[in-house]
Write a structure and sequence with these properties.
elongated; nine-stranded mixed sheet; Heat Shock Protein 90; five-stranded mixed sheet; 4 domains; alpha+beta; Ribosomal Protein S5, domain 2
């Protein structure tokens, strides 16, 4: 066959020239993306050929095996990407490679101009990924032959400098061959390991085989080496996969390395066809990732038609499920969907709704069927999951059922259902105590009366606990009650029904209460007889309706300005020290020992919580009291 090699020279449209200048000078910060783009285009061409073969009988080379071949030639400084796809006619080559996505080009340029820069992930939105080749190539030569009957091969050549040439070419089979004549600073893309790593990162799960041929290397038996997996694990049926298969992929998802014994606590593997088609394979890690609370933490990987478009998509799950790791792959998302577009894409919102529902369901099943695994899961991620109680009203009941708590009377974790089921009939509230350390809370004097009545108390040590309780004021008709706040049995919380002018019940230690309030002044809000103490002499209580002392601590850790709120000092009327102090207040209110004893009672209440507002003064008062005891013993 005689081939007319005379070339036709064409100029790019004005906006195309501007785009090429942007591409070659400032567009991509990550140049390796060019290979992902060209492989994606080749995969699309193979898919089109497969589809056309189903509806047309006159296509050429219908028996041609689908494949993508990358050829590296270090001696010629060229990189070739070739496919056996649908190919292009002369008109299609001129249109597809000379006008760049038609109407999308101007929109792309406008987006780049408005942002002041162009995100790499914007490229695929406007169909200009092919031109990423000019980031690494001084010249690009495309030789293509359409599968349509009678089509002649054509060669498209451009240096990205404002125009391109079209000429007849020689190619015996359908498909396209893209030859990149690399720039001097792009020599890294002539190295085997570099090409392999890029393909495995971005295109490992493209459904068609990707072969690598390196000049000077002997081809392996059976043909060129395939460097992609070609079949994504998430597209396979769970019944065809073993635990070892899942563990291997889990290791890949977690960055290629996990500590011995780090196996997923739960996994979620499913495919959905409506309202949007997507597949997902997600894991709950065995250990909390170190970046769990970091702003730039890793998240779920997003694929579009088996091509990685975002390796860290935090829009697929709500923040309280951010501990899930894995992949989501959709046929209905555009390739290279950008982070800007993720905010508005309706398909992505549909995926998020379905993923959230499925993720909560798998957590519920784990809690019900594998309690030990769920307890370990909760230990690692409970603080994060509890954020959902405040963030997600739509799944509130399911999330409440998933919460687990330690308590004073039990060793392991309890659900709220377990706690309520074990409550004595006369227990009016779900009691809890909040603080920094569980062991300190277990010995708190605030629990003494409740323990004597057989009432259990939940221990809340996570910083988010009191915050999320604002969205969980009751459970099964029982309200939550902080044992360190207000009256223990809740009389102070009756609000509008309480008589503000009612005279408080007289107490046997009223003289001491009056004297203590006068002596302590603004250091306390009130001094009252306690109904929560049975063994200890004194404790400090947050006034009902005020910010708890634990919340004040958390706010300070968050560098928020918090003013100290005076607390209520409760005294145990039956404690010997309190009884003796009351006698002194009643018989000798002017005795200097009374001030020392009252201050010591306040010190003891603070010390029980692990804080000493006035260490030096406390030491002095203790020494004074001990010296008095020592003198009395010697005199006796």
């Amino acid at each position: 066959m005689t081939v007319n090699t005379q070339a036709e020279t064409h100029e790019f449209r004005a906006e195309v020239s501007a785009l090429l200048k942007l591409v070659t000078n400032s567009l991509y910060t990550n140049r390796e993306i060019f290979l992902r783009e060209l492989i994606s285009n080749a995969a699309d061409a193979l898919d089109k050929a497969r589809f056309q073969a189903l509806v047309r009988d006159d296509l050429s080379d219908k028996d041609l095996a689908p494949a993508i071949t990358i050829t590296v030639s270090p001696s010629n400084k060229t990189l070739i990407i070739e496919d056996t796809g649908i190919g292009m006619t002369r008109e299609e080559a001129s249109q597809n490679l000379g006008t760049i996505a038609h109407s999308g080009t101007l929109k792309f340029l406008e987006a780049a101009k408005n942002e002041g820069k162009a995100d790499v992930n914007l490229i695929g939105q406007f169909g200009v990924g092919f031109y990423s080749a000019f980031m690494v190539a001084d010249e690009v030569v495309v030789t293509t032959r359409s599968a349509l009957p009678g089509a002649e091969p054509v060669q498209w050549t451009s240096s990205g400098d404002g125009g391109y040439e079209l000429a007849s070419a020689s190619r015996e089979v359908r498909g396209s061959r893209i030859e990149l004549r690399l720039k001097d600073d792009a020599a890294e893309f002539l190295e085997r390991y570099r090409i392999q790593n890029i393909v495995r990162q971005y295109s490992n799960y493209v459904l068609h085989p990707i072969h690598l041929v390196v000049e000077g290397e002997e081809a392996p038996e059976g043909g060129p080496e395939q460097i992609n997996a070609a079949r994504a694990i998430w597209t396979r049926s769970p019944s065809d996969l073993s635990d070892e298969d899942y563990q291997e992929f889990y290791t890949h998802v977690m960055g290629g390395f996990v500590l011995p014994g780090d196996t997923p606590r739960a996994r979620l593997h499913f495919t959905m066809d409506a309202p949007i088609q997507f597949s997902a394979l997600l894991f709950v890690p065995g250990r909390a990732p170190m970046d769990l609370f970091a702003e730039d933490r890793k998240s779920v990987q997003l694929y579009a038609r088996h091509v990685l478009v975002d390796d860290n998509t935090d829009k697929l799950l709500p923040p309280y499920l951010r501990f899930f790791r894995g992949v989501v792959d959709s046929e209905d998302l555009p390739l290279n969907v950008s982070r800007e577009m993720l905010q508005e894409d309706k398909n992505l919102s549909a995926i998020r709704r379905q993923l959230t529902r499925k993720a909560i369901k798998i957590l519920t099943e784990t809690a019900s069927e594998r309690a030990e695994d769920y307890e370990a899961l909760w230990t690692e991620f409970g603080a994060v999951l509890k954020e959902g109680l405040h963030q997600d009203g739509g799944h509130r009941d399911e999330l409440i059922a998933l919460t687990r708590w330690y308590s004073v009377s039990t060793e392991g974790l309890n659900s709220l259902a377990d706690y309520v089921k074990a409550m004595p009939e006369d227990q009016p509230f779900i009691y809890f105590i909040a603080g920094e350390h569980a062991e300190t809370l277990r010995t708190s004097p605030h629990l003494e009366a409740l323990k004597s009545r057989g009432h259990d108390v939940l221990l809340m040590t996570d910083a988010v606990d009191e915050w999320v309780l604002q969205s969980m004021s009751e459970y099964e008709g029982k309200t939550f009650r902080n044992v360190m706040q207000g009256d223990l049995d809740g009389e102070d919380s009756e609000g509008e029904d309480a008589d503000a002018d009612a005279t408080p019940e007289p107490s046997a230690i009223d003289p001491l209460l009056s004297a203590a309030k006068a002596l302590l002044g603004d250091n306390v809000k009130e001094v009252k007889a306690s109904t929560r103490l049975t063994n200890s002499a004194a404790c400090l209580v947050d006034a009902d309706g005020s910010m708890s002392r634990n919340m004040e601590r958390i706010m300070r850790l968050a560098r928020q300005r918090v003013h100290d709120t005076p607390r209520v000092l409760e005294l145990n009327p039956t404690h010997p020290l309190v009884e003796r102090a009351n006698e002194l207040a009643q018989e000798s209110p002017g005795d200097p020992r009374l001030e020392t004893w009252v201050s010591l009672l306040h010190d003891l209440a603070s010390l029980a919580e692990g804080t000493i507002p006035d260490p030096a003064g406390t030491v002095h008062r203790l020494q004074t009291a001990l010296e008095a005891v020592a003198k009395a013993e010697r005199a006796g």
